[in-house]
Amino acid sequence: MRVEVIPTAGEAVSDDLLQKTVIVIDVLRATSSMATAIEHGARRIIPAETVRQATRMRPEGGMLGGERNGKKIPGFDFGNSPIEYAGEFVRGATIVMSTSNGTRAIRKSLRAGRLLAGAILNASACARAALSFGKDVRIVCAGTGDRFCLEDGLGAGLILHEMLSLKSDLEVGDFGQAMRCAFLHVKDYLEEALFQCHNGIRLARLGFADDVRFCARPNVYKTVPFLEGDGLVAWRPAG
User: Fold this and answer.
1) How far is CA 74 from CA 54, 79, 87, in A?
2) Which candidate in 52, 74, 94, 215 could, as Cys together with 62 as Cys, close a disulfide (CB 3.0–4.6 Å)?
3) Cα 191 to the chain's mean position, in Å?
4) Residues near 57 by Cβ (< 8 Å), separated by ≥ 6?
């Protein structure tokens, strides 16, 4: 089984994702918010690329979540803060989400054989889920505007580290090896490392420092958002 980490969603080639297990990761903050919503009982998360598409896809009784330039979209029920999704009010809900980068990366990866939303929050569960499918894995870092983001690379490195702890004979591409080394270098002060990333600095300046702290906690969730039909649902690794 081979694992490759793709630095940005713009570098992901759709044909290369066919028959692969794809993990999309946007640590700050889309996939962290999705993982939080699913962990707290959301029934389904439908990713939308644009605001108009999200509004059109909203089912009766559904809610809207998302951001542009880090801020909540006017008229939406939620922004993109994972803390917003950490309550009982999301239980049983269908949420249509549109974010600047994360949902776009998911939409671009729809040709994958299996598609998961990964984060630092659910890295171990995500690693176990990906390995259970027995297919080559592509970890797609969402990035920001087609630029690589270190926090996504660190999240990918953590997921890869968890995968190797479960299956040591994985073939790993060079960029994946580099991201695992980067994660291991900062694993004892991961929160501080996220605050030093460009997006960590930007979010702190926008008043979302608590989000950065929230997203920096490894392996606190047992569920994994898993694409089923047009939306992400809970997938729980056995055991």
Assistant:
1) 13, 9, 21
2) 94
3) 17
4) 46, 48, 96, 230
CB 224 within 8 Å of CB 235 = yes
Angle at 12 between CA 183 and CA 79, to 5 degrees: 70
Amino acid of residue 212: V
Q: Tell me the three state secondary structure of residue 186.
A: helix
Helix (H) or strand (E) holding 114: strand 114-118
Given a cut of 90, whether residue 237 has pLDDT beyond it is: no
Q: Residue 66: its pLDDT value, please?
A: 96
Tokens of 29: 């903050």
Q: Is the CB of residue 2 less than 8 Å from the CB of residue 171?
A: yes
pTM of the model: 0.96
Query: How far apart, in Å, are the Cα atoms of 184 and each of 42, 128, 140?
Result: 32, 19, 19
Separation CA 2–CA 177 (nearest Å): 12
Average pLDDT rounded to a whole number, residues 98-113: 94
Task: Give the end-to-end CA distance of the chain in Å, rounded to a whole number.
Answer: 22
